[in-house]
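Example record

One chain of 315 residues, shown exactly as stored in the release files.
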Amino acid sequence: MLVETSVVGSFPKFNDSLELSIKKVVNMQLDCGIDVITDGEQRGSMVSYFEQLSGLERSGESLRIIGKVGPMKGEVDEFYKIVDYKKVKAILEDLNHNDVKIKVTFTGPVTLGAICALSDAQSAEKYYDLVDMKKLYFDFSAALLPLVLRALELGALVQIDEPLLSTGSIGLGPAKEVLEDFFLKLPTSFANDERISLHICGSIKAVPGLFDVLLELPVKVLSLGFSGEKERENMDIISKKVFEDHKKKLGAGFISNIRVEDQKTIRDRFFEIKKRVGKKNIKYLHPDCGFALVSPNKVKQILENMKVVSNLVIS
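Predicted C-alpha cells for this chain:
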C-alpha cells in the first residue's frame, strides 16, 4: 500500500485576498510534494468556518448558540468549505495537477458543539442541557452530515477533527455514541475506500479508555501525533496487532508542526512508528497538527524536511 504525505489542515493566514491566499497555500504544498493537500483554512478558525449552520452566531473567532442547531438554510454548495474545495480544485486544474488529492477538514460534532456551547454558556443553556450535552452533539452531527456528504460526493477526502477528546474534558460515553452514529450515516463505500479519517491531537494515552473508543468507531483511518511532548506517549499504545485486529490504518504525525526538526530526528521517529505498527498499516505521513500559529517561513521548512524524509523512508 502506498503511503501518502498530507497536512492536518490549517496554515498561517496570508494578508492577501482569499483567492490569492489559497493559491499560496496550494503552491507551498505542491512545491513540497504533498500528496493530499488542503485549502489551509484561510477564511477563519476551526470554529468560525461553521457560522452558516442554523442556530449559531459569530462571536469573535468563535461561535455562540442562539437557537436550536441545525443544517445551514442555504444551498450546501454555498458552504464555505465546499466553496474553497472548488477553488483548490480549479487551481490544481489550471496547473495540470489533477493527480493531487484534496482533503476537506471538518471540526467534529463533539468538539464543535462543546466549544460553541462554552463560548457563551448563558445563551446556550436556553436551548440545551449543558450538563448532559449529548442532544447538543447529536444536533451538531445532523447539521454537519450533509456538508461532509457533499464533500465526499465531489471527490474530496474528509478529515473529522476531534481535538477535545484528548483533553479529558469530554465524556467518552456520549462522544462515542454520537461519533459512531455520525460515521455510520456516511456511505460505507467512502469509509471502505479509506477516504474518511479521524484526527485527534494530544496524548491519547492520557485519557483512560479513549484509545479503545477510537478503535471501536466505524472509521478506517486514525490520525494521531507522535512528535510533541504530549504526543510522544502515543507510541506506547500503538501496535501492529491492535491496528490489524481492528482493521485500522494510521495517519502518523511523525514531524512537529511547531518546530523545525533535524531530518535524523524525523527519520528515527518514522522508523519507531513503523517498527511498532508496521509499514502496511500506515496510510498517511503528516505533521502532528495544524500550522495556524506558525510562520509561513517555518511551515515551508517543516514541509521541505517532511518531503526529504518521506522520499527516503517510503520509497
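Notes: The chain has a mean pLDDT of 97.
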